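Final report, closing paragraph on structural work. Over the funding period we assembled a curated collection of sequence-structure pairs, and we close with a single example.
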Amino acid sequence: MSLVTVSKVNYFYPDGDARRYILKDVSCTFERGSFYAILGESGSGKTTFLSLLGALDKPKSGKVLYEEQDIAAIGFESFRRNKIGIIFQAYNLIPYMTAVENIKVAMSITDNKLPKDVNEVAYNLLDYIGLDKAKADRTVNKLSGGEQQRVAIARALATNVDVILADEPTGNLDEDMENEIVAILGKLAHEHNKCVIVVTHSTQIAKQADAVFKLRKGKLEAMDN
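Its predicted structure, as stored:
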């Protein structure tokens, strides 16, 4: 069974008497344990597509399904809180909080069952993605861009979800840090059975992905990888 299914999704804006399609009849499936890259030029609809997968916006027609259930029936807020983790390009961390506090905030809003010692879990997650306790206890505005992106990844994992969505997760990073972040995302898919979906313009990410799609003129096309 597919974990996430996109079925005949359309998204458009009114343009006079016509419609300007951003996504047109898009259908695809995503599985657990796989790392996906969605490529596209600037303005191709990548972020819109990710917003629909993450229940941050609604399709004009068609459906996004999670385990064969329409996410509209699950409830968009409930879906965001309990089913997915989102890694934003701009990190979207709370700057005056420490790394570990940012993780614990995410854990406090989910309905998912979590271990009782959230403090220990938060530190362990940060250690897993490469931040020691000293950095975990720093306010995030005192961390480098690569370190902040690691915190954002740990936060996405903190609520024990199966789907990780990432919007240009290496767009602000140098090549070495990009490679490290891509390796972490691949490990989440292949060793921890997560469904990892990244929208990006990076061919480096695409080379590491299990499957690659390209958005072009509103259509999503599978690419050879």
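The longest strand covers residues 18-30. The two ends are 23 Å apart (CA to CA). We thank the funder for supporting this effort.
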